[in-house]
Hints:
Layout: H1 6-18, E1 23-26, H2 32-44, E2 49-52, E3 67-70, H3 77-88, E4 98-101, H4 105-109, H5 118-122, E5 133-138, E6 141-146, E7 159-163
Parallel strand pairs: 1-2, 3-4
Antiparallel strand pairs: 5-6, 6-7
Amino acid sequence: VYAVSIAHARQIAAYYSLHGVESVAIDSRTPALERKELVEDFRRGKISVLVNVDIFSEGFDCPDVEFVQLARPTLSLAKYLQQVGRGLRKSDNKESCMLIDNVGLHRIFGLPVRDRDWEAMFEGRMAGNAQPQTRMENNGLSVSCSLSEDSKRNEGLEIVMTHNCL
């Protein structure tokens, strides 16, 4: 889980733990040795959820991750792709990865599996989610589906559901 601040990370970890899911918050104040032990506990399954503040966006290699929750906004496509990428690595022990986007980053950047015109992005001709989409809404529940040319390749990964609590 990617949180906005240390306090936010601790609140999220406490919430999961309160509901029976063993969770810990890791941030810049977590001593290196303790951080290493917590990550090993996560790898062994002793801890189910690691909530972090800019600790696991880059360089964290644990292909068995099956769940990524985005609870912090970013305006960086690279950071978004790195965060969701923690769960999209292939592993023999994994069939799927659940991505929960609490802050609507998929609306800005599109789904992580979509094709991007990197040249246009680097030249500044395109930014964000410049891809056609279809959208259906019903009582605050919305479903967005990307209309990619290669929809067969991404089948099963192209639906994002969000719920507005207003």
